[in-house]
Structure formats: C-alpha cells, structure tokens
UniProtKB/TrEMBL annotation:
GO molecular function: DNA-binding transcription factor activity; transcription cis-regulatory region binding
Keywords: DNA-binding, Transcription, Transcription regulation
Name the UniProt record assigns to this protein: LacI family transcriptional regulator
Ranges that cross the membrane: none
This protein's record includes keyword Transcription regulation: yes
Family annotation (PROSITE patterns): HTH_LACI_1, HTH_LACI_2
Domain HTH lacI-type span(s) in chain numbering: 11-65
Region (Disordered): 316-339
Gene3D superfamilies in alphabetical order: 3.40.50.2300, lambda repressor-like DNA-binding domains (1.10.260.40)
SMART domains per record: HTH_LACI (SM00354)
Length: 339
C-alpha cells in the first residue's frame, strides 16, 4: 500500500531567527514593523523570511493581542464597475501586506437599510474598521457606526455618523471642470450625460460641469442620467442628438462608449461632428476609434493613501490630517481634439 508523504513542517520564527543569526524577539519586531531594529539586521531577517518562505501566523497573533485584524468593506452598487473594482484591488493589496483580512459585502444600489445591515453584520464579526466604497445618498440619513470603529470612506463627503470617519478621494469636481472647459473650445454649449443622481460621484461631476459653464457664462442644459452602462449611454446620446448636441461630457467611459455608438449610428463622426469626453480613462479608451478623451484618476493611489492612514490608526498612531483629494487629469485624444 502506498504511503502518503509527511506534511511539510511550517516554517517558524525560530527557524528564521536561526537563519538570520538573531533572537526570536528581533524577528517578531521585523515582522510587526516595530522600531529598534537596524536597517542591516532588518534586511538580514527579511532575507531569511524570503528564503525560507516564512508566513506569519496571524491567527496566533490575534489570540495574543485580542484583535481580529479584520477590516469590513461595504461596496455599493456591485463590484463590476471600474471604480469600485479598482479601489477594492488597492485595498486588498494594502491589507494583505499589513496582515489584515477583509470581509466584503456588496450591496444593491439605493439600499439604505441594506447598507446599515451590512455594517452591523461586519461589526458583529469583529471588524476593527469599516471601509465604504462608492457611497450613495440615502436622503440625508447617515450610516450608524459604533464608537471606537475606524471608518474610511472613498469619497469626498462623509456618509456615517462616526466622528472617526475620514475620506480619501480624487478631485472629481476639478476633473469635470477641466473636461467641460476643454469642450467649450469645441462648441458654445456642453451637454452632460451623468450617472445615477443618488451616487455622490455623479453629483461631484455634475458640480464641476456646472461650475465651468457658469464661470464661462454659458448655458447650463439639463443633464441626462444614465446608469453607468454603455446601453444607457446610447439612449442618452440619442436624446442629446435630437437636441442638437455638439459637445458632450460623459460621467464615465462605459457610457461614453455607448454615446460613440449612437453618434456613429446617426451618421455623425465623434471628434469631428460631436466632441466627447469621458471619465475614468479605462485602459481601452486609447484604443477606441477614435481614441476617447477622458479624465484620468489614479485609483490605486487613492486606495494606498486611504489605507495607509487607516492602518496607522489601527496600529495606534494619532490620526493625521485627512488626506487631500488626489488630482485628476484630462487626457485629450481624438474624440475631442481641438479643431
């Protein structure tokens, strides 16, 4: 009868300490990123960790410290949209490096009660912090979070009752303002296809668009709302073409792709007959025909800035100043190239 091979023994801190020629306490300090370790010793210990394939036992650490090292994430409107997916990827990277586990709950759009239930569930599971991604407006009602729980919201407006809530975002208002000013060089009126109006991101982009038009003394037409999808972009663009639209700012690239299809179906040319600018600068934007102008946001940088502040707070640091919104940048391509 064949015998099974013995299971490989898990590499321990003792093994790392022996390989690096240091004490087990020094290895613990390096693993937990504590002070009082010289750079030379830290490098030697890290080399031993990498060579041996050591992985810290976070479950054991939780028993000792009585901390869960778990962060709860509430993402609204699903996890298929580019913004929430990109932010979540950055959050996962930073959490994993710091030894934290994530519990993620995806909720339906517009479900205020569902959001509160999700937060309550995550807190009951021992989450030390709550992250809210792509928040929406629930009629002025704030999400209730117990005292002592850190809260990071990826947006420019607070959405919880917690005094510990802080924000991380890109400057969407400035990005929308820049896109609209650019389009005013193409036509005296700039129409807007916005996202769902209960999304705070939609409101920021509407605000930037309106600010730019008012500053220029231009007409401020009624925006047409889509649902972030290409299909809704087609329907909205058809309506705008009936109005005689010649320059359109679109609140995300997916809807802008739909708008380009509607322009083509109408026998018109994007970038020549109708100027178009999207938002988010998807990887595909530069490969469309014509390439799509778009407002670029660094989602990973936003995640990194927010998570590093959150992790510092969880590890006992005094809260720093709230991170400033990171800049957005208009990338001009043929869909709105100056004539």
């Amino acid at each position: 009868m064949p015998t099974s091979s013995p299971r490989a023994r898990r590499v321990s801190m003792v093994d790392v300490a022996r390989a690096a020629g240091v004490s087990q306490k020094t290895v613990s300090r390096v693993v937990n990123d504590e002070p009082y370790v010289t750079d030379e010793v830290r490098d030697r210990v890290q080399h031993a960790i990498d060579t041996l394939g050591f992985r810290p036992n976070h479950a054991a650490r939780a028993l000792v410290t009585r901390r869960s090292h778990r962060i709860g994430v509430v993402t609204m409107g699903g996890t298929t949209l580019h913004g929430p997916v990109s932010v979540l990827a950055g959050v996962e990277d930073e959490a994993r490096r710091a030894g934290y586990a994530l519990s993620i709950v995806s909720t339906a759009p517009g479900g205020g009660r569902e959001i509160q239930d999700a937060v309550d569930s995550l807190v009951s599971q021992g989450a030390e912090a709550i992250i809210v991604s792509e928040p929406q407006d629930f009629g002025g009602r704030l999400i209730d979070v117990p005292d002592g729980i850190e809260v990071l919201t990826f947006n420019s407006e607070p959405v919880t009752s917690s005094a510990r809530e802080f924000l991380a975002s890109s400057d969407e208002v400035a990005g929308a303002r820049e896109a609209t000013r650019h389009l005013l060089g193409f036509a005296p009126r700039v129409d807007h296809i916005c996202g769902p109006t209960n999304w705070l991101a939609s409101r920021s982009r509407i605000r930037g668009w309106r600010d730019a038009l008012e500053a220029a003394g231009a007409e401020v037409p009624d925006p047409i709302a889509g649902d972030w999808s290409p299909r809704s972009g087609v329907a909205a663009m058809r309506e705008l073409l009936d109005r005689g639209a010649r320059a359109v700012f679109v609140a995300n690239d997916q809807m802008a792709i739909g708008a380009m299809s509607a322009i083509h179906d109408a026998g018109l040319r994007t970038g020549i007959d109708v100027a178009l600018v999207g938002f988010d600068d998807l990887d595909v934007a530069e490969f469309l025909t014509p390439p799509l102008s778009s407002v670029q946001r660094d989602f990973r940088a936003v995640s990194r800035v927010g998570m590093r502040e959150l992790l510092a707070r969880l590890d006992g640091s005094v809260p720093g100043a709230p991170p400033d919104p990171l800049p957005s940048r208009l990338v001009v391509r043929a869909s709105s190239a100056p004539r």
